[in-house]
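Inputs:
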Amino acid sequence: KVLLASICVAFLAAKWTSPRFDADSLKGARVLVTGASTGIGEQMAYHYARFGAQIVITARREKVLQQVVEKCLSLGAQKAFYIAADMANESDPDKVVDYALEKLGGLDYLVLNHIGPSPFSMWKGDVDHTKWLMKVNFFSYIQMAWKALPSLEQNKGSLVVVSSLLGKITSPFVAPYTSTKFALNGFFGSLRHELAMKKSNVSISVCTLGLIDTDSAMEKVRGVTDVQAYPATDAALNIIITGATRQPELFYPWFTYFIAITKDWFPSVTDYIIQNSYNYIP
Ligand code: NDP
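Outputs:
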């Protein structure tokens, strides 16, 4: 009980002492958001637009991106552009960063959010899919981060990485996906140390999300689990605030923090809960 109370106090203290978010700081901010044609990325584009940012968005579907850009402009974005790109292509991550640098004249925020589609099912030995997913969900992230770092460094910028509770704990049915998220957490955790040791200007925020009510996520878990899903627009706003206040981590919803820190205390209990939170009949 004492331990649990101490953790709660530490969590609340961290919340209360975290810097206040100044919405004006995003007016005119130059932002690149990936995976912004749908879901959380799309919602982030709209929030940045309402804050008056200058935005470049990317994903594969050009028509959808065009519609999102139009809505961003109507919501108040100072500038909004899109570039269609497939993050499985070796050259596209660089191409996208170059485009954003050219259109906006520099970057204050790089928000890495896209994911490739991956089945929600038992792993059946598809190594090629896992390799492909690693390209889309991991290698493109580190390629874009490296390309954008000089500009972020110049502008005291922020690198925001959208990860998952499945980058902290393992779960059935998502072996390829969870691998990419663990890789992100490891890589950007290490890079954060290195930037701090170099006294870099760039902050890295890694965002741990629980289940969010995007169409793609809901389609996968419908009928399989009763875990509550949280609103994409709220998740998006929390990610933006975390980047703007240069916090190293976000846990959304809040209880994902407790799951992440307590998962190793009683491993067999954790495993039991995880395996029994899905409707599965062998
Ligand atoms: P969505 O599936 O709704 O959106 C994924 C985005 O990535 C789309 O814009 C899609 O657009 C784009 N995309 C897909 N494949 C590629 C590709 N090969 N190259 C470039 N872009 C691509 O995802 P969510 O909004 O649900 O998730 C957003 C982030 O939040 C992800 O990082 C995810 O891991 C994380 N998260 C989400 C949770 C959830 O429950 N929703 C839970 C935990 C974390 P297009 O098809 O046009 O290319």
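Remarks. Residues 23-115+125-273 form a domain with the Rossmann fold fold (CATH 3.40.50.720). Residues 35-41, 59-61, 64, 85-88, 113-116, 136, 162, 164, 209, 211-212, 214, 216-217 surround NDP (CB under 6 Å).
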